[in-house]
């Protein structure tokens, strides 16, 4: 039986070596075909499919090794256990360093296959060059996997039991989070390879922009949803009671999203007018470089975070060298092959849609720079001076919030402008909505004396964008529908975040069973504790009765879970969600005492934060399925 299990690891390992061999063959065929590009060699498509098929086999072999608990496989031994539920055995395939990189490779090979199938109407040289650049990335990942992170390493003597998966990773949201996030990350690789090919051939044009926009949109949608799932998981699983903590690993997913969002807007301008070609090229390179940087930071062990997988400097060094090689290649192509159209350099009229987009692009680049500095500055300081610091929310808030106001205002007014040259029509309603927004924000904030002016200005600008996009739904109907949905979702997101931070409250106290906590607004009764036993953990459940100032009573039951393998205790929050707020409670044991530490929070508009991000993604989906972004 053990030999049968081990067979899957052997097949998976050999599939990786064969996939690498086919990658080298594809490079050879591409160079050969590029010299005589009358037709795309059918062997190229066949070998691309075979390479993808081999990676699928390798990935399925790893899945089966996890399902069958083959502890002769080092990756399975380190990340699984016989008592782990079936669903988490499968999810454990990519819930670790080696498996997640194999998933990266699977998506890389899938995307280049889809690209070749879907671009039959594109120039052959362009398709061949895109394949070549993509294969350079794929071969790099094959070598990285085989040399430093092989998911099929063998252990002897074979252990009878595995070490198990970190319990906080045993969660449905986090199980599907990596595949969706990687579809966003790896989607940027096709944009990267495509833009290098187009730059080399000097075909970065309006037609090319229309073609690449679909790839940028699909990558952006998956990246947005992946970040959302990670945020939801952190909210209810880690017990912090918030949706974003500026954790370094959260930041490395946010940075490519900022770059990709900016890139999408540049592609829209390029579609209408042959300008911003340099922006499009640099942002395409930056988005992929930031995705790769995220891989380096998470897998090198440099970052101290609950999200990190690996702690191996050799792995980090490999990715770093590979990343710098790709960036060097990109910059070489940009400086030696890109030809700027000088006739269009000064063709911006100060009041036009493209000018509004370019101004907000600079804001987005500023936000990206703040996040980048806040993430990597502690790393460089540690390397140079051995001084350890952490950059927290105050740093980001102070640098980002002041610039958020003009960003939102331009985001509201920009879509009202016309391409090339515009006059600001409907000035009366624009001014009227601004006055209404200011008046409403004053009414909302007036009872909150701290930061009255800042909160009023922020809420006013967010309400202004909210009202303008809402009006457009009624006035313009389906015109610019995708843009209106995404912008409306963004205004709703900012408003939900502001209201959440403004109106939330928190109680932290220590209670024994039977004790009561009471203040002017809330009464918390620690009624009892109960226990239950599951397959791979046992639970201590705290039963609480919470009464608010209006007399409304909620029964809440947070848990402490003690897992058997690995032997780790986790806190599971109990959350009661309504349209207007979440009631969130979590408990922890106080060491050597009979007390439980109780954290109770009321978090307004939490549901709207999640819904607004889904709405933003839906705007991207509407744009993806429409034949034209704007009529």
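^ Assign residues to that structure.
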């Amino acid at each position: 039986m053990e030999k049968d299990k081990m067979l899957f690891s052997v097949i998976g390992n050999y599939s990786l070596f064969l996939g690498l061999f086919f990658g080298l063959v594809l490079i050879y065929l591409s160079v050969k075909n590029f010299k005589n590009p009358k037709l795309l060699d059918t062997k190229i498509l066949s070998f691309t499919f075979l390479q993808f098929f081999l990676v699928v086999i390798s990935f399925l072999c790893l899945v089966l090794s996890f399902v069958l608990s083959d502890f002769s496989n080092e990756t399975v031994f380190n990340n699984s256990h016989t008592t782990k539920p079936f669903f988490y055995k499968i999810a454990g395939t990519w819930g670790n360093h080696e498996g997640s990189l194999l998933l990266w490779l699977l998506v890389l090979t899938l995307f280049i296959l889809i690209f070749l199938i879907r671009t039959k109407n594109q120039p052959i040289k362009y398709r061949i060059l895109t394949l070549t650049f993509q294969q350079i990335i794929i071969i790099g990942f094959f070598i990285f996997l085989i040399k430093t992170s092989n998911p099929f390493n063998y252990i002897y003597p074979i252990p009878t039991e595995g070490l198990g998966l970190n319990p906080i990773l045993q969660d449905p949201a986090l199980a599907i989070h990596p595949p969706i996030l990687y579809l966003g990350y790896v989607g940027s690789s096709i944009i990267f390879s495509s833009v290098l090919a187009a730059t080399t051939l000097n075909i970065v044009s309006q037609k090319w922009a229309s073609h690449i926009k679909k790839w940028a949109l699909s990558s952006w949608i998956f990246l947005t949803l992946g970040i959302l799932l990670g945020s939801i998981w952190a909210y209810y699983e880690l017990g912090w009671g918030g949706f974003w903590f500026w954790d370094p690993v959260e930041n490395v997913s946010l940075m490519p999203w900022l770059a990709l969002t900016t890139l999408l807007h540049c592609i829209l301008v390029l579609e209408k007018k042959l300008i911003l070609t340099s922006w499009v090229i640099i942002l395409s390179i930056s988005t992929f470089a930031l995705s790769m940087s995220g891989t380096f930071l998470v897998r090198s062990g440099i970052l101290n975070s609950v999200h990190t997988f690996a702690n191996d400097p050799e792995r980090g060094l490999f990715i770093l060298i590979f990343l710098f090689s790709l960036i060097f290649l990109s910059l070489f192509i940009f400086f030696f092959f890109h030809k700027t159209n000088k006739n269009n350099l000064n063709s911006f009229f100060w009041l036009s849609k493209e000018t509004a987009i370019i101004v907000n692009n600079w804001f987005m680049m500023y936000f990206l720079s703040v996040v980048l500095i806040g993430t990597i500055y502690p790393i460089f300081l540690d390397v140079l001076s051995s001084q350890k610091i952490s950059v927290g929310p105050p740093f980001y808030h102070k640098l980002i919030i002041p610039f958020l106001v003009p960003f939102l205002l331009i985001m509201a007014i920009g879509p009202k402008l016309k391409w090339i040259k515009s006059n600001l029509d409907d000035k009366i309603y624009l001014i009227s909505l601004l006055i209404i927004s200011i008046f409403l924000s004053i009414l909302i904030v007036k009872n909150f004396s701290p930061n009255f002016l800042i909160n009023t200005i922020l809420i006013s600008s967010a309400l202004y964008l909210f009202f303008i996009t809402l009006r457009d739904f009624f006035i313009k109907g389906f015109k610019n529908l995708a843009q209106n949905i995404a912008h409306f979702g963004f205004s709703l997101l900012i408003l939900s975040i502001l209201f959440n931070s403004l109106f939330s409250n928190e109680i932290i106290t220590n209670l024994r069973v039977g004790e009561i906590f009471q203040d002017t607004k809330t009464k918390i009764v620690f009624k009892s504790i109960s226990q239950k036993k599951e397959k791979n953990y046992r639970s201590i459940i705290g039963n609480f009765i919470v009464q608010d100032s209006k007399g409304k009573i909620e029964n809440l039951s947070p848990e402490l879970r003690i897992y058997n393998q690995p032997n780790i205790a986790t806190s599971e929050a109990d959350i009661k969600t309504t349209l207007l707020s979440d009631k969130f409670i979590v408990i922890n044991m106080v060491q050597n005492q009979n007390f439980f530490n109780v954290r109770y929070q009321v978090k307004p508009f939490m549901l709207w934060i999640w819904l607004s991000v889904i709405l933003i993604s839906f705007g991207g989906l509407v744009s993806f399925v429409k034949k034209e972004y704007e009529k």
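Residues 360 and 619 are 19 Å apart (CA to CA).
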